[in-house]
Amino acid sequence: MTTAPDTSARPASESGNTGRAALWMTGAVFSFTLMAVAGREVSIDLDTFETMMYRSLIGGTIVTAIGFATGRLAETRTTKFRLHVTRNVFHFTGQNLWFYAVPLVPLAQFAAFEFTTPLWVAILAPFVLGERLRPVQVLALILGFIGILIVARPGISPLGIGHLAAALAAIGFAGNVLATKGLSRTETVWTILFWMTWMQAVFGLVCAGIDGDIALPAASSVKWVVAIGICGLTAHLSIASALRHAPASVVAPLDFARLPIVAIVGMLAYGEALEVAVFAGATLIMAGNLMNLRAERTPRRDP
User: Fold this and answer.
1) Residues 19, 66: contact at Cβ < 8 Å?
2) pLDDT tens figures, 251-261
3) Whole-number CA gyration radius for the chain
4) Can you say whether the dihedral through the CA atoms of 53, 57, 63, 67 is positive or negative?
5) Are the C-beta atoms of 47 and 216 separated by less than 8 Å?
6) CB 254 within 8 A of CB 22
7) Residue 59 to residues 2, 104, 284, Cα–Cα distance (Å)
8) For residue 101, which of 55, 26, 152 has the smallest C-alpha distance?
9) CA angle, corner 275, sides to 269 and 278, nearest 5?
10) Nearest in space to 7 (alpha carbons), one of 173, 253, 286, 239
């Protein structure tokens, strides 16, 4: 999963075309869904570090080629190198856990866990950014936590290491979002993508090669590896573009359309059951996200 830079500081006048935002979010939903399927397919012969290495090398090559063609390579200069490192450590960790969990957890359940990322952002923001939680945000977190329990059903449905990895991946993505909020004040989307792809290519190379053996993808997996590399970029660019046409309060609900689509893909491609509990829990998680988003858009009153 790749999260777009924060755009909450942009004026409402920049975000009025809901139709275009919906079209861009269709691209994001397609990209995330295809990346989940591709992640399952390559897990047969690649570990997560190798997958991340190839994903980042493909993405980095594309981003650099675009930067060269458009004369934007000068934008790679940054005064926030440490923050880029922090962001990419969080994202690399979360994405590795994401790829680890995707073959182990039903796709609908997996997507529901992923939607908890904004709730973790709300939990971590007071510690990282010094923001105070409002009562409505506390209620949103409670709703989201109840939704997680319904989706996971501890004690009723067996939980495994894949469920833990999916939950931890959401926390990793939350750390990524918080770091991106700082970067997006001065860095362009292209700059963030450049440092993301090449930093994580190095991380992946080191982690994949630490045992002295980096596997090449099988011939049958090459198309899936390429799909992962491309979708990692198109998902990010689609969300960033959607946020330029409509506010986050409009874009976020459009992303929730991914759950039924992923569930149908899981049913058709992998024979996974469509479980009512997963959709019920995901609905509560989405409600919590929307409440939290609305609270963020409401001006704070000094006590």
Assistant:
1) no
2) 777 788 888 89
3) 19
4) positive
5) no
6) yes
7) 12, 25, 35
8) 152
9) 105
10) 239
